[in-house]
Sequence to fold (376 residues):
Amino acid sequence: MSKTTKENSIVTRPPVIVIMGHVDHGKSTLLDYIRNTNIVDTEAGGITQHIRAYEIIHKDDKGEDRKITFIDTPGHAAFSKMRKRGANIADIAILIVSAEDGVKPQTIEAWKTIEEAKIPTIVAINKIDKPGANVEKTKMELSEHGVYLENYGGNIPFVEISAKNGKNVDELLSMINIVADLEDFKGEKNKEATGFIIEANLDQKRGIEAIMIIKNGTLKKGMWVLANDSHCPIRILEDYKGKTISEATFSLPVKLVGFDKMPKVGGEFIAFEKKNDMLTFEEEVFEEEKNIKEVDLNTHKKIIPIVLKADTSGSIEAIEKEIEKLETENTIFRIIQQGEGNIGEKDIKNAIGAEHAIVLGFNVKADNNANTLAER
Ligand code: GDP
Fold:
């Protein structure tokens, strides 16, 4: 679905920032402080609503307004999984460390995730207002764990802050702009949007809604969004303040309402001008996935295809891992399709498409149509 790229339509886009670190080191306090001091709340109550992403405007040294997007990650696991697929939700990571507690296990874990994702990092040494804060000790501990700061044997920029009283938070925002300038993140407006799902939930009144972060292109009313195998027409589109909008472009977090299925958090989405384009694209991708050779070329073993349905994404992951381990003298198993929810007609059709396929359900039911089709 990639279209010819016109050189002149490629522009610099705002960076998407993620804050990671040990629990209680101040991630939420920092996110709240930046939001409260940088977003003018025009809609009453709008800003207090629960949304895990927002955009701010910060003036750079030249006095120019610069946009920065902050997202609350859907957890380290989802974040690192994305890297394996060659894409990142965030462009810059902030590793937050409390100067009172120093480096802790989740600091190291977060650092590993960031390193694997290969995204530029800024270290925020937090809680410097506390009497027990020891900035020098924290820096030493960081270098002991391979986080080499500028002037401390490395080139990772850092800012000493207090997320509570806001000291140096402005400097941190300026640092983000400096790093963004160096990296020069690009986007193309005249393209159908692509990006990531960062949250999804079922609203009793409105249906399935998702918070998405646009990484490229533009989303417009009338388009369609495909996220794995969930579809959504762009009818109810809102910005992070809950205000209805008809269009949005890169780095903006948006809420889209009306998915036919719960989209996977951390998964990618693609927008299409027309519903039919989306369905054709989906069909093509699906055909590719289905055409797994019957015999594994490496082991020469027969492949048994499996369609897996389970109650949660957690169980899917766990079962997938187990299935990967299964192997007999002359067969191996391969999941050709998986998803959350009951077994439906479409799942059976998918299984019919592959030879000797098995449909597996874990903590889910098969609906009537699926049963009838399977029996046939
Ligand atoms: P998170 O688990 O990383 O999101 O940490 P929180 O933002 O919830 O912060 C944990 C606790 O530390 C809260 O009680 C905050 O008020 C406090 N805290 C966070 N940042 C600072 C800071 O810069 N100075 C002080 N004194 N307290 C802070």
